[in-house]
Specification:
Alpha-D-Glucose-1,6-Bisphosphate, Chain A, domain 3; 4 domains; seven-stranded mixed β-sheet; 35% helix
């Protein structure tokens, strides 16, 4: 047990003294060995994520499950079940088993869904008596990665405060503990059908997709058992790509981050439009009949217009992130709407929506949250509503895009930086900060620069947006070269 304050980049052991411990933790030896953890925080912008078998080990998952179980119980009146879901990665079974063991050791009952989209876990948290949920997935990351995401009993991402309490337990900041009771484990894949029914509920009797041909790229991931039938039940003709659960190929050259197969298939089958999900189906990207990419900015704009016309968008307010295109922001304001930006990450969007009462928000990368229908990003839900919007408009998706807004040229480059501490502390590199200042001064109001460490991948993301593509390309190359020179080696 740590006995003196230790600073872990924002996580301070002094915050968890005996005076303000989040739970009663007697000093009792736990039935496992202490973990060797990195000095940087485990929780990033979307839970814990890293290489399976190294950072994401069976031992870590076991202890994360135990401490999460204690934290969830501390903030719940009664010890109700925890929902557990997973994607198709080869490591997901191992991590789910270890997490379930940790949660039951903490005294909680576990309802294991098996293969299920992340938003399915979130929905079932809110629709049942569960006090929280856990999803095993690394979202859009490659197959060798994995992750652990937590949800509250309301279906929202678990607060940063409670994530800190879980991490404090893992690091020994709040003592050691054992539960007095042993929870039970139940395999309940049938609950996923309740989630599928909920997707249809707002559209049944209102939307008929009959006659529409839609291509779905399921990325060999969590949505393979649901997506096709969900669209077919509303009358659409569906062509599915990468539609088997495959842990070796999840997200590999497919899905929401690799749109070329979807673009080709939409044109080959002469489809009306196509949707691509990521590995856990909490976000999506679309393409029109000509194979043009339609990102989250356009999706927010279209859905926002529909809600605004129905007087379902309080104060015409939209929440997006710093990545949202300036063309989108200015077009929405020209309509008379309000526009707020947050840091990257759907948890930041969600927090701002709850704070302001906004009903619609999201990310350019395809995380879209509409509080009329759910509390978290849901790729399938969003795709259904966009298909419905296209049908009701009497226009094609391409025509809607042509009549919306002109984007500013925006380039995004990722620089791989394996060293976790160097990546998290990139702002201490004077050469990088000087290069950013130089670029911002040169572009003035003709562009903007955003450099940040990814919270989900071992990369530094460099984004440059400018009034013309020449400026964007020049300063992107300049900044990438500096980051590579000082951090990547």
């Amino acid at each position: 047990m740590v006995t003196s304050p230790v600073r872990i980049q924002g996580l301070d052991s002094s915050e968890f003294s005996s005076k303000n411990q989040p739970m009663n933790c007697p000093n009792v030896r736990l039935p496992w060995q202490p973990l060797t953890l990195p000095t940087t925080p485990l929780f990033g912008t979307d839970g814990i994520r890293g290489r399976a078998g190294t950072l994401l080990s069976e031992d870590l998952a076991l202890q994360v499950g135990f401490w999460a179980g204690l934290v969830l119980q501390e903030y719940s009146a009664v010890p109700e079940p925890v929902i557990l879901g997973q994607d198709s990665r080869n490591s997901s079974d191992m991590l789910a088993t270890a997490l379930a063991k940790g949660l039951t050791t903490a005294g909680l009952e576990v309802w294991h869904l098996g293969l299920c989209p992340t938003p399915g876990v979130a929905y079932l948290c809110s629709a049942t008596s569960a006090i929280g949920g856990v999803m095993i997935s690394a979202s859009h990351n490659p197959p060798e990665d994995n992750g652990i995401k937590f949800f509250s009993g309301k279906g929202t991402k678990l607060s940063q405060e409670l994530q800190k309490h879980i991490e404090a337990g893992l690091r020994g900041f709040i003592g050691q503990a054992v539960s007095k009771t042993q929870g039970q484990y139940h395999y309940r894949p049938g609950l996923v059908t309740d989630y599928a029914a909920a997707l249809h509920r707002p559209l049944k009797g209102v939307t008929n997709l009959q006659g529409m041909k839609i291509v779905l790229d399921l990325a060999w991931g969590a949505a393979v058992r649901l997506s096709g039938q969900v669209f077919e039940q509303l009358g659409a003709q569906v062509i599915c790509l990468h539609d088997q659960a495959d842990g070796d190929r999840i997200n590999v050259n497919c899905g929401s981050t690799h749109l070329e197969p979807l673009k080709a298939a939409v044109k080959e089958y002469q489809a009306d439009l196509g949707f691509a999900f990521d590995g856990d189906a909490d976000r999506l990207m679309a393409v029109d009949a000509h194979g043009r990419e339609i990102n989250g900015d356009y999706i927010l704009y279209f859905w926002g217009q529909t809600l605004r016309a129905a007087q379902k968008l309080p104060e015409d307010l939209m929440v997006a992130t710093v990545m949202a295109n300036l063309g989108f922001e200015r077009a929405w304001k020209q309509l008379g709407g309000k526009f707020l930006r947050t840091a990257v990450g759907d948890q930041h969007v969600q927090a701002k929506m709850l704070q302001t009462g906004a009903m619609l928000g999201g990310e350019q990368s395809g995380h879209i949250i509409c509080h009329h229908y759910g509390m978290t990003g849901d790729g399938m839900l969003t795709a259904l509503h966009i298909a419905s919007l296209v049908r009701e408009s009497g226009m094609t998706l391409g025509q809607l895009v042509d009549q919306s807004f002109q984007t500013y040229p925006q380039l995004l480059r990722n620089v791989r930086v394996e060293d976790r501490e160097r990546r998290r502390g990139w702002q201490e590199c004077e050469a990088i900060t000087n290069a950013i200042a130089k670029g911002e001064a040169a572009m003035g109001d003709q562009g903007r620069i955003l450099v940040r460490a990814s919270g989900t991948e071992p990369v530094i993301r460099v984004m440059v947006e400018a009034a013309n593509s020449q400026l964007a390309h020049h300063w992107t190359s300049e900044l990438v070269n500096v980051v590579e020179r000082y951090l990547a080696n």
